[in-house]
C-alpha cells in the first residue's frame, strides 16, 4: 500500500481523497528539517504547500519517494533538480489558486492606493485622520504587469474592469495572446518608465531574482507603487526600502518576503508599506481546490502512473495510463536490450512508432526507452531525467511516427548509432499485451524477454545450437525459452535464450569461445 506524508496545512479534503483510494496518509505539520529527513524514507508521496523545504538533503534520504505534490503553484521550495536526479516526479496545481491570488493582488493594489490598512489602524485608535490618508484613483492609471501568465492575466482582466490601462512585460507572452488579453506588450524598461503601479507575477528564477532593484527602481516614475504577490526574492528589499525612504516609491504592498516566515523585516512598520503574511492563496475556495487537485493527482500517479501537472515529467492522463502500461514495458525492454548490448558512446537514437502505438502519447515511452538505454551506463538515470541526460551527452534523439501498420499492428523500432555501427531492434505487443522482440539487426525473431537472457550472434552452421545446449546443460544452466532467427541460410543468425538464472562469467566465456559464435552477451531485464 502506498503511503503519503502531508507536511503542510492542507484542507482535510486531501486526506479523505487519499484514504478513499486506499492510500495511507500521515499528517505531520511543522516538522523541522531534521525530523523530515528522519521519516521521509517511509513515504511514497509527499504533499506540501510552501512551508516545507524539500531540499536536496531531504531528497537524498527519501528512498521510497516517487512523487512530491505541491498544493499550489510556486515550486521554489522544492529542489526540482535533485528530485529529477532521483526520478521523483514533482507536480503542482497550476490553476487552483490563480483567481484567489489575482484577487489578492487587486486587494493589495486598492489597499495601497487608499491607505486602507493604515487608516483602519488609526481609526480604531480613535483618531480621525481624514486629511492624512488622501489616496489616488486607479481609474485611467497605467498598471505594469511583470509576468503575464495565469495570475498576471487575471490581474490584467480585473484591472481593465477598473478602467486601468494595462501594459505587460513577459518575454514568453505572444503578441496574439497580448491582443486577446487586451494588454500592451512592452519591454521591461518601457514598463518601468510608464507604469503608475507595478504588479509582479513571475516565478522566482535566476532571471527574475532581484528584478526590482535599485537600478530598475530608478527607471520608474517618481511616485510609483509596487505590489508583490509572487515571490519575495523578486525584490531587493534593501533597495526598495531606500526608494521608499527617499519618497521615489510612494508605496509597496507585499504579500511575500525574501525570508519566510517573515517575523522580522526591514520593511516592517514603514508608513507606506502594506503587508500580508503570504496570504495570496489563502481563501477557502483556493485551498479546497489545490488540496483536492494535489491529492487526486498524487493518487492517480501512485496507483495508476497517470502524470498530471508534473514539472519534470511528460504528462500521462488517467485514460492513457492503462493503455500505455504494456508499451512502457516494451519500450523499456528495447532500450535496456540495446543499452546492454552496445558498448561505444551513442551518437544518435531513432525511435520509430508504427501502427497503433503511433496514435498514443509517445513522450513517456521515449522517456522510459531512454532510461533503459542509458541505465547500463549510469545508475543515476531515470525516466524523469533520461531525456535531459541524453541531451547533456550530445545524443541526438528523434521520434518518427507512422499510423500505417506494417507486418504488425503495432511496433516500436529502436535504432542506435555509434561511431562504429548502427544497431536496431523492434518489438510489438501481441493480443496478450505482453511485449515480444520481433526483429534484431533486420533479422526476424520472436522472443519474450525474461529476467536473464543470453543474446548470441553466430554463423548459421549445423551443430552450433547442439553445442550450446550441451555446454549450458553440463553446467547446470536450464534453458527456459530458445528463439532463433537468421538472415539467410548459412548467413548471420541470432539466438535469444532465456535461462533460469544468471550465467557465471566463466561459462559465458566458454559460450563466446564456441565455434561459429561471433558474440555472446548476458542481458538482464
Ligand atoms: N502569493 C501567493 O500566495 C502565490 C504566489 N504565486 C506566485 O505567482 C507566480 C506566478 O503564478 P502563475 O501566474 O500561475 O504562473 P505562470 O507560470 O502561469 O506565469 C508566470 C509568467 O511569468 C513569465 N515569466 C517567466 N520569466 C519571466 C521573466 N524573466 N520576466 C518576465 N516574465 C517572466 C512567464 O512567461 C509566465 O507567463 C508563481 O510562480 C508563484 O511564485 C502563486 C500562487 C499564490
Ligand atoms: O500555499 C500557499 O499558501 C502559498 C501559495 C503559493 O505561494 C503558490 O501557490 O505558489
Automatic annotation (TrEMBL):
Residues 106-280 form the D-isomer specific 2-hydroxyacid dehydrogenase NAD-binding domain. Residues 323-441 form the D-3-phosphoglycerate dehydrogenase ASB domain. Residues 4-312 form the D-isomer specific 2-hydroxyacid dehydrogenase catalytic domain. PROSITE patterns: D_2_HYDROXYACID_DH_1, D_2_HYDROXYACID_DH_3. It holds the Pfam family PGDH_inter. Keywords: Amino-acid biosynthesis, NAD, Oxidoreductase, Serine biosynthesis. It catalyses: (R)-2-hydroxyglutarate + NAD(+) = 2-oxoglutarate + NADH + H(+); (2R)-3-phosphoglycerate + NAD(+) = 3-phosphooxypyruvate + NADH + H(+). Pathway: Amino-acid biosynthesis; L-serine biosynthesis; L-serine from 3-phospho-D-glycerate: step 1/3. It comes from the Bacteria. Residues 452-514 form the ACT domain. InterPro entries: ACT-like_dom_sf (IPR045865), ACT_dom (IPR002912), ASB_dom_sf (IPR029009), D-isomer_2_OHA_DH_cat_dom (IPR006139), D-isomer_DH_CS (IPR029753), D-isomer_DH_CS1 (IPR029752), D-isomer_DH_NAD-bd (IPR006140), NAD(P)-bd_dom_sf (IPR036291). One of its GO terms (molecular function) is phosphoglycerate dehydrogenase activity. Its EC number is 1.1.1.95. Belongs to the D-isomer specific 2-hydroxyacid dehydrogenase family. Catalyzes the reversible oxidation of 3-phospho-D-glycerate to 3-phosphonooxypyruvate, the first step of the phosphorylated L-serine biosynthesis pathway. Also catalyzes the reversible oxidation of 2-hydroxyglutarate to 2-oxoglutarate. PANTHER family: FORMATE DEHYDROGENASE 1 (PTHR42938), HYDROXYPYRUVATE REDUCTASE (PTHR42938:SF47). This is D-3-phosphoglycerate dehydrogenase. It comes from Dongia soli.
